[in-house]
Amino acid sequence: MSLKSRELAPKHVLSRNSALLLCFASFCAGMFFTNRMWMVPDAKGIPSTTKIGGEQLVNCDLKTKVVKNEANNSKGTSGSQHSVQNVDKVISDLEMKLLAARAERETVMKDPMTFEDLKNVESTSKRKYFMVIGINTAFSSRKRRDSVRATWMPQAEKRKKLEEEKGIIIRFVIGHSSTLGGILDRAIEAEEKAHGDFLRLQHIEGYLELSAKTKTYFATAVSLWDAEFYVKVDDDVHVNLATLGMTLAGHSMKPRVYIGCMKSGPVLARKGVKYHEPEYWKFGEVGNKYFRHATGQLYAISKDLATYISINQDVLHKYANEDVSLGSWFIGLDVEHVDDKRLCCGTPPDCEWKAQAGNICVASFDWRCSGICRSVERIMEVHERCGEDKNTLWSTNFMQTMRSTF
């Protein structure tokens, strides 16, 4: 075509607005037909994924539903459910052990003394013990400790034999003074060198700090020794070790057990009285009583509960009285409370009459003194009149008792 004919050809040019309108209409038509022709089926039962930081994450809720649907639709439904339960239990156990290990590491690393204890028992820590007995004591209680050593607590080679043959650990439990390395701490260190029967805690001693001390004791003990039971007893209480062991062995197959003389005393709101409870208002109206808990002179808990305390020690609330605090830590848990009055017998003639009747007491003390009154002078008398036969401890097979109970 010549240049002239091109110039004479008619020009069919759309306006700018018309072009934009046509483009928009074409876009809408394309979207409509695309959605109609390429409908994506609903992804029911397909786990969705997302990418965060370059990593692909799976929607766990949907994945769980897929697993459940597959299990329900399979022919072996009961077998699948049983397998899932087993896996859940294994995972739960592993999680508990992991948390316990972390808590153990934190507890041990806080205190160089405890770290040394851990190294000393490292060679035997893998073995299973029957029970750990912590005797709560204070800096001023040297005579009480000596009176316990002279009566119901085996010494030297016998204590070592007790650990090796019976799986029973006994230690006096004490923390540090407010002046670390002061004269009080040095006195305990000298006593430890002479007897080797202390468990030192990362704790500042003080009567108002007994709840914190109890919590630290259980956390430390469970980190050092793998035992069935952990016992706390005061240093002015008489204990029959074999009877205590037989009593605990009867509850060995219970996963979470709390054993003691259960009581429910009044909540004392008035300031200045002994056992005053500053947080009395939490227990309801004035004059109310505490929830059931074991009296503080002697009680025992199973390993699961000691581990629970170790894991949660930073968030467990402390009341003024340590026995109340311990009881409060187990509220809301699936725990069996065992009320055994043999753990709180009176001193002679009470425990003596019971022994003569063949019902030997686990522990003896005077309620009015919250321990044996003038225990340094009187504990030997209690031991002679209410103590079990000295050969009973060595002739009793606690592990056999546990198996026969099961």
Helix content: 40-55%
As laid out across the biggest beta sheet, the strand order is 5-4-3-6-9-8-10
Number of beta strands: 11
In terms of per-residue confidence, which ranges show pLDDT below 50 for 5 or more consecutive residues?
1-11, 36-71
User: What structural class do you assign from the helix and strand content?
Assistant: alpha/beta
End-to-end distance: 110 Å
Backbone CA Rg: 35 Å
Overall average pLDDT: 81
The secondary-structure element order is: HHEEHHHEHHEHEHEEHEEHHEHEHHH
The largest sheet, given as strand count, sense and whether it forms a barrel, is:
7 strands, mixed
Q: Count of helices?
A: 16
Q: Per the principal axes of the C-alpha atoms, what is the gross shape?
A: elongated
Q: Which percent range describes the beta-strand content?
A: 15-25%
Topology:
Blueprint (H helix, E strand, L loop, with lengths): L2 H6 L7 H22 L11 E4 L2 E4 L1 H14 L3 H34 L1 H9 L7 E9 L5 H8 L6 H11 L1 E9 L6 H13 L2 E7 L5 H15 L1 E9 L3 E2 L1 H9 L7 E7 L29 E10 H10 L9 H8 L6 E4 L10 H7 L6 E2 L10 H12 L5 H4 L2 H8 L1
Parallel strand pairs: 3-4, 3-6, 4-5, 8-10
Antiparallel strand pairs: 1-2, 6-9, 7-11, 8-9
Helix pairs in contact: 4-5, 4-9, 4-11, 6-14, 9-11, 9-12
